[in-house]
Design goal:
It is a single chain. This protein has about 190 residues and is mainly α. It has two domains: about 100 residues, Rna Polymerase Sigma Factor, Chain: A (Orthogonal Bundle); about 80 residues, Winged helix-like DNA-binding domain superfamily/Winged helix DNA-binding domain (Arc Repressor Mutant, subunit A, Orthogonal Bundle). It is built from eight helices and no strands. Helix 1 packs across helix 2 and helix 4 packs across helix 7. The longest helix has 26 residues. It is elongated and about 60 Å long.
Length: about 190
């Protein structure tokens, strides 16, 4: 996220902490799409993603109201709450495979019929490869390539150094590359 966005969000947090509920809705608008995408990609069920996302916002706002220091709240606060909520959800349930819902919410929607089938096959192959990564590697890949966060930002969210986050990203990408290569070779 751009530095301007970070400053805007810090300002919104500050105003929301002072009790102005209008700013909470602005914060929800800023975070809804990226957090929904993250939660959906991690648990794979749209209905449960929606439900979990509501809990994430409630937990995040509760922690904002109870935090003595607004300065400690950054753009990563919501990602941290989301990540921990997904981990809790996974502990309570068996690991859920991504459902066969359409991926049109996560594509540009301009592909033709043949392209859509090809995209779906590629997405399914990618999805299967992602499921074989560790939870931290999945988080790092999603944060980096879906949400566009830097390695420093990912390190902050995952409570590790930027170098360690970069290592997770690289290991995940190498595994996905090798896995997809093997799948495509089998298809030929």
């Amino acid at each position: 996220m751009a530095q301007d966005d970070l400053e805007k969000i810090k300002e919104l947090f500050g105003k929301a902490k002072k009790g102005d509920k209008e700013y909470f809705s602005e914060i929800c608008e800023v975070y809804f799409k990226p957090l929904h995408r993250y939660v959906y990609l991690r648990i794979g069920n749209k209905a449960e993603s929606d439900e979990l996302l509501q809990d994430i916002f409630i937990k995040a706002f509760d922690s904002v109201e109870n935090s003595p220091q607004c300065d400690s709240l950054t753009v990563f606060h919501f990602y941290d709450v989301a990540r921990k909520s997904v981990m809790d959800w996974k502990r309570k349930r068996k690991r859920v495979a991504l459902s066969d819902e359409s991926m049109e919410n996560y594509s540009d929607g301009k592909a033709g019929n043949t392209d859509e089938i090809s995209d779906r096959e590629e997405f399914n192959n990618f999805r299967e490869a992602m499921k074989e990564l560790s939870d931290e590697q999945q988080d790092a890949i999603i944060f980096k390539f879906i949400d566009g966060l830097s390695s420093e930002d990912i390190g902050s969210i995952l409570d590790m150094s930027a170098r360690s986050a970069l290592r997770l990203e690289a290991q995940g990408l190498i595994f996905i590359r090798d896995n997809l290569k093997m799948r495509y070779e089998r298809q030929c």
